Every structure is written in C-alpha cells, then in structure tokens.
Amino acid sequence: MESKDYLKDISEIKNLMNKSSRFISLSGLSGILAGIYALIGAAIAYYIVDNSIRGYLILDGKIFAICMFILALIAFFSIVTGIYLTTRKAKKNGEKIWDSSSKRLLVSFLIPLVTGGIYILIILNQGRYGHTAALMLIFYGLALVNASKYSIGDIKYLGLTDIILGLICAFLPSYGFWFWVLGFGFMHIVYGTWMHFKYDRN
Asked: pLDDT tens for residues 133-143?
C-alpha cells in the first residue's frame, strides 16, 4: 500500500514539474483552422497566378506582392485564432496564459522564425524566388522543434515533417507551391486533428 502511495506521489510531483516548465494549453483546433486558412489562401493565390498566365500577363512584382499579402493575411488570421483558442483553453484549464513557460515558448519559437523571415526577405529582394517555399518550411519547422522544449512535445513532429518537406522541396523547387500547400495546409490539419482528439477532448 505504501509503495503505491509513494509511486502516486512521484507521479503527481512529475506532473506538477512538467506543468510548471511547459506551456500545455496549445489548441489543436487552432492548428486545424490554420491549415484551412492556408488552403484557402493558396487557392486564391493559385487562381490569381493562373489567370495572369492564361491572360498572358507577366508575373511581375505586382502579382508577387499580392501573393505575399495573401500570405500575410494567412499568418494574421492564424495568429489571432491561435491566441484566442489557446487563451480560452488556458482559462478552462486554470493555466496562466502569460507566465515564464509561455515566455520561453514564444522566444524559442520566434528566434528561428524571425531569422528565417529576414533571410527570406533578403533573397527575395535579390530577386531569387526559387527556394522561398523550401525556406519557409525549413525555418518554420525549426521554430516548432525549438519551441517543443517548452510546450507539448508533439509539436516537434509537425516541425520535423515540415523540415523534411522543405529539404525535399529544395531539390524540387518547381513544385514549391504544392510542398507549401502540403506543409502549411494539410499537415496543419492532420496535426491539429490529432492534437484535438488527444488533448482537447480530455
């Protein structure tokens, strides 16, 4: 009997330590919606580019700027949705949304992401567009893996998947759009669904 109580105490202590060092209220539903936003944005961008080509228009800076604006909207809506759903889940779990764990998570996520974003802007300014999708996937994947140390460890699997897709995309840059759709669209939906049924329904 004492042995069972001892093991139970150890398990409770371990859970408390895990909660104190990790931000665990990430919402799986936000991942699903981020994937849907990405697919909708990709469909709009594809329609614009396809009609430009069919209409014999040059794929100039204006069309590219529109596509970048669509990407910015996807990121904006994904961030707003993620913050809202994660805040709601944290309140439901009685967890603080802004504490040392969430701060470490944010810093760990932003360092690779911002670095990658700046590098991508630099090469775009140089007129080198071919590896944009690959670099987006790789740096986003690195950001997720880095942040997984301070959150639910499962997010590293999405990160590793995006890194692998990015590296393959680097070998096949002409298929960059479709790798982007797979990594940011479908994989987010798969990951979000998995997380939702594993954590959010408990």
From this structure: 999 999 999 99
